[in-house]
Specification:
The protein is an alpha+beta fold and 210 residues long. It is built from six helices and seven strands. Strands 4-5-3-6-7 form a five-stranded mixed β-sheet, with helices on both faces. Strands 1-2 form a two-stranded antiparallel sheet.
């Protein structure tokens, strides 16, 4: 309750009380709803990871930071091998569970503060690694593959392995103000394409452009 004095035309003084509980409750509910909407707009509903919109925002920010600091920025693009075959064999509900498990594995592989794990789209994921050179990025890529092997997720319909595998394209750059951050994505995507063309289940590093 808010309590305050009021003067009357006859010179008397009265005291008024205003209940603000409902106003506060509605204000808090509105803040919570706005926060939930903001989270939903940047979070993938299936896996709980950051989504493509969040990735685009973070990539731009980290690209600008790299240009200022002249520190490397690395990107891993990760594709689950033969995921359509997985869905065809086990069903889409099992496929969703598989993607959630994959998301957890990748999330655990990002061990440094500031690293972003993203569901990039479909069965593709991305790891954005600020301040990480190509050697360190390669270590993270190998860690992702090793942890997926340890998980031993069955993939009976895969021509590569009886277990679920992934292919990874790695790209590292020191950003330049004259370039757009999409060049980093393009380089990682080209490296991923080479992996998939060469049999999958390993990672490839894009040639340095710095």
């Amino acid at each position: 309750l808010h309590s305050y004095a009021l003067g009357t035309p006859s010179g008397c003084t009265g005291r008024a009380r205003l209940a603000v509980t409902d106003l506060c409750r509605k204000s808090l509910e509105l803040e919570r709803n706005n926060e939930q909407l903001a989270n939903l707009s940047t979070t993938d509903a299936l896996t709980g990871l950051a989504n493509r919109r969040s990735f685009d925002q973070c990539l731009l920010s980290e690209w600008q930071r790299s240009a200022r600091s002249q520190q490397p920025l690395s990107l891993l693009l990760i594709d689950v091998d033969h995921f359509k075959r997985y869905n065809d064999h086990y069903g889409h509900l099992a496929g969703d569970a598989c993607l959630r498990q994959m998301a957890g594995i990748l999330y655990d592989c990002a061990q440094r503060s500031g690293e972003l794990v993203v569901r990039y789209g479909g069965e593709e994921f991305a790891l954005l690694l600020p301040g990480t050179d190509v050697e360190a990025a390669s270590v993270v890529a190998q860690r992702c593959m090793d942890e997926l092997v340890k998980a031993q997720i069955s993939h009976a319909n895969s021509p590569v392995s009886p277990w679920l595998t992934c292919s990874i394209g790695v790209a590292t750059m020191i950003a330049s103000p004259e370039q757009l951050p999409e060049i980093l994505v393009r380089c990682a995507d080209e490296a991923l394409y080479r992996v998939k063309s060469a049999g999958r289940a390993h990672f490839s590093v894009a040639p340095s452009l710095t």
